[in-house]
Amino acid sequence: MDQDNAPRDSDDGFDLDPIEARVLAVLIEKAFVTPDNYPMSINAITTGCNQLTGRDPVMELTDETVQDAIDSLMGRRLVSRRDSASARVPKYEHLVRLRHSLPPAEQAVLAVLMLRGPQTVGEIRSRCERMHHFGDVSEVEAVLEHLADKYPPMACTLPLAPGTKEARHMHLMSGDEFATQAAEGVGGPASASRGGRVAELEEEVRRLRQQVEWLTSEFESFRKQFE
User: Fold this and answer.
1) Nearest-angstrom CA–CA distance, 1 and 7
2) CB of 191 within 8 A of CB of 197?
3) Disulfide check for 73: which of 35, 59, 79, 86 has CB 3.0–4.6 Å away?
4) What is the pLDDT of residue 203?
5) What is the spatial distance between Cα 19 and Cα 2, in angstroms, rounded to a whole number?
C-alpha cells in the first residue's frame, strides 16, 4: 500500500483540520438526533456542516469538500462507509465509539466541543441536551476529566481568561497547536461566547418564523370557511 494512502492511526495525537473536525462532529451529533436518517449521505453531511444554528464558526462547505474530508477520516479509521442494497448513494457513519471506547455521554460532549468551540461546563451541559441528558454539571466535569485522561487526550481545560469566572474547555482533535491558539485568544472564549449568542438568536428567529407561518396557514384555513 502506498504510504500516503495508508490508514493513519491517531495514537500519537490528533491533527484534524477544521473541516474534518466539523464533518466528524456532525456525524456524531446526527447519530443521536436523527437516528432514522443515519448513516448519512454526503449531501446530508454537508447540510449538517453548514447549519446556521449550533455551529461556531458557521461554514459554507461544498459536497466535494465534505467528500475530501470523509476520505481523509476514513484513512484515519474514524469514519466508515455503510453500503446498503436499498441506498441510492453511499452513506457514512463515525467510528469514534469503537475506535476510542467512548460511551454516549463522552461522544456528546466531544461533539459539542467540536461544533461550538471552547465552552464552560454549564454551556456544554445545556447544549448536549438533545444528545445526552446530564443530571448536573458534576457529570459533565467527570466526562471532561475522562476525555482529558485518554491517550492521546481528547479535551483540555483552557487557562482562565481575564475578567471571567469560569474556565472553558475545548477539544484536542485538532492538536495542541490549535488549543494553544485558543488559549491565546485566537478563536477563544470571547469569540466563542459571541458566536454562541448569535446562534441562539438565530434559532429564536427560526422558531418565530415557524410560528408565523403556522398562524398564517391557520388563518387562511379559517378565512376559507366563510368564502
Assistant:
1) 10
2) no
3) 79
4) 66
5) 24
Domains of the chain, each with CATH number or no CATH = 3-196 (1.10.10.10)
Q: Is residue 194 within 8 Å of 34, Cβ to Cβ?
A: no
Residues 6+ apart with CB under 8 A from 201: none
- End-to-end CA distance of the chain: give it in Å, rounded: 73
Tell me the C-alpha to C-alpha distance, in Å, between residue 41 and each of 23, 24, 67, 70, 83: 12, 13, 10, 11, 11
Q: What is the structure's pLDDT at 186?
A: 43
pLDDT at 162: 86
So what's the pLDDT on residue 176?
80
Chain centroid, CA 20 distance in Å: 11
User: 90 and 1 in contact (C-beta within 8 Å)?
Assistant: no
Q: What is the pTM of this model?
A: 0.76
* Res 49: pLDDT: 98
Low-confidence ranges of the chain (pLDDT < 70): 1-12, 182-204, 206-207, 210-211, 218, 221-227
Residues ≥6 apart with Cβ < 8 Å to 16: 24, 73, 76, 173, 174, 175
